[in-house]
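Job type: complex structure
Entries:
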Amino acid sequence: MATLPAISSDEGIRRDLWRPLAGASSRYLIVLCVLSAVALWGLVAWGYQLYRGIGVAGIRRPVFWGFYLVDFVFWIGISHAGTLISAILRLTDAGWRKPVTRAAEAITVFALMIGGLFPIIHLGRAWLFFWLFPYPNSRLLWPNVRSPLMWDVTAISTYLTGSTIYLFLPLIPDVAQLAKRATGWRRRMYRMLSLGWTGSDREWNALESAMKLMAGIILAVAVSVHTVVAWDFSMAVAPMWHSSIFGPYFVVGAIFSGIAALLIVMALIRKTMHLEEYLTPHHFNNLAKLLLLMSLLWLYFTVAENLTAWYGNEPKEMNVFGARIRGNFGPYFWVMVLCNFVVPFVLLGIRKLRNILTATIASITVLIGMWLERFLIVVPTLSYGRLAATWGRYTPTWVEISITVATFASMGVLYLVFAKLFPIIAIWEFETQSEHED
Amino acid sequence: MSNSEHRWGMAIDLDRCTGCQACVTACHAENNLPLSDPESAAKGRAVHWIRVDRYYEGEFPNIRVKHVPVLCQQCDEAPCEPVCPVYATYHNEEGLNVQVYNRCVGTRYCGNNCPYSVRFFNWFDPVWPSPLELQHNPDVSIRMGGVMEKCTFCIQRIKRSKDDAAAESRPLKDGDVKPACVQSCPAEAMVFGDLNDPGSKVSQLAESGRATRLLEELGTKPKVFYLQKAT
Amino acid sequence: MYLNGEFRFGDARERVLRALQELRERGFAARDVDVFSNEPLEIPRDVLERRSHMSFAAVTGAVLFCVLIIGFVSFTQYSYPLITGGMPLFSFWATGVVFYEITMLGAILTTFCWFLKEAGLLRRGRPPAPDVEPGMICIRVRCRIEQSVAAQKSLEAAGATNIQSSGDAR
């Protein structure tokens, strides 16, 4: 399939990809202001929570973990967008990924930054979060490295470091070029970020070696990160949590939601930044096929988890299972199946229906479905514990809902700012592609 | 296990328990438990380090009720201990699962991992409307919001008895240490003592044919023995 | 001194390879020749003898961090007087995940630092680099005055334009 854009000259590519960096339209500013306001409201809600106490959230005994943990797992899941596209497709040398890599890697870094906030937000005494770090002190205090939460800390820190480096490395050549043409504070910023890049073959060789290595490393880290997040739950003895399926299930779900997020972002930047010639229906077709594949894989894991729980008929597990399938959480469960499997299968499986718009719709429903899936993992198990006398129902409050919505807004803000400062498509990678056919 | 002198355990005779909840009240008074109102209790925020679970069998008029006072089981292999990222809960040498309020940052993982759900969280800073704060026990600390708490087997009373015995230069006798719940039970359904002492009442009751433990199949090795009803 | 030659137009890459061949045949050392471009040219590594030890560095960094973290965790776990009531002070499998993550962090950081070293970025006193426009490839040869004629001939033979010299005359 043809992937060459209509404009093949280098100047043309630069013009298209650098245009968004100059100036800001009023539409951009309005959207940025609205999203910032929502994000700020989330900050206010968090401030209120810090001031009054975490009781302003809806969590209670026995549902000690609620929306914040759901959001945490959700955002760490979204962060697998970059990993899949950049790392796996780079390792398999799939050329169609090239216009998509930087956008995906940016999603990863910002999603990690947002997701990494939640372990702090959900703490009862959040101002003491630094006690989870091993620092020398005179009180004989030390973190307990046995705890899966400590594994979270190391895993997410490593992944954030790796992803930031992985986003930064291919940015260097682009930023070096931008530095030549920019003025004022931008020029200073680009010069500093370009680290003195001159474009010599030594530098290119080093970059290519580093990118290859990082792709492999980041893939190994990404799989471990979401497995570790899953192990927060499966290391506990709670019914239907203590299952070995959690590790792979979460990784698959993460890649699934990551692709969905990437598709939505791609559709948005294609429309708003007029990149129709660079993000062609071919790219969306490939992403849509991947999304469909992950949807089927997700279905496989869901069936496996529920079938084994149901067939095993262990009473404590059956309480949770019944609540999820037909009890209090039944409606959410079936909406989740609809969003995660039925809609993507119909819209993306039937070739006539598959286009950019339907792929975007399917991706939005997938994100809703995956959020519901995280919710259905965290809350029902805690609501229906091993001793029936302890059962309880969880209702979120405005604080939790505000913070959840604000994270989506902050993702938007971060992304808007990023797209204004750096070209969203890696120009040097793209130029290489346009010479060698995909 | 540790080679300490004592290993504290409890035996609760379900045949004697009437479900009067004197133990619950006594625990509130002894351990400065935070108050709750009907609204917060409905939200699941009430704190009862010891609670009485009621199990009903049969249909009216042949209903049988079993009252089970549930408190922290002080498990020898507690699932709450390995998961705390800051070591706020640990196992001391006398077999008690100790909660260090000052160290807790409030991740609440321990609360999720406790199969008995005996851990309670301070969602807000506790408030005692005047003059209830005058009733506070000076031997027990007041916990602030954001901190996990649970039954301690009245560790302050254990310490007090040990200090008294040391002051009088005599060893601790069986029955010297009485947590508030044990002390207040009118049916004398609860017995507390040293499991390391084969002659103590709790050791003998633990060997009884009626002795069971809650959720024993999980392997938590709890140290509260429930003597099932004879009929 | 440095001699710069520009190569423009479609077959620039092939001409550059020819020029490199010529320069090598005339005896110029590979480390004295640099090729500048706005995109990676995929010059075969042996043409300019650019050997990379990055994989080795990454593995070394990973192993080093692995050893350090296991040592750090076990030393601190044993030296802090923590009471665990029977739970082992140091448990390899319970902390294995942390070891794995820090090992990977070691690989990541080492790769990045080695990249900076191999690329020669952040180094002071780097010779002036030619300003490369899009679609243009530039060869820079470091040579002594006596060799400059030979270098110029090699570049011209391959079709370079705008051959200029820069740097101190030596």
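Summary: The beta strands of chain C are 2-7, 33-37, 137-142, 161-166. The first strand of chain C starts at residue 2 and ends at 7.
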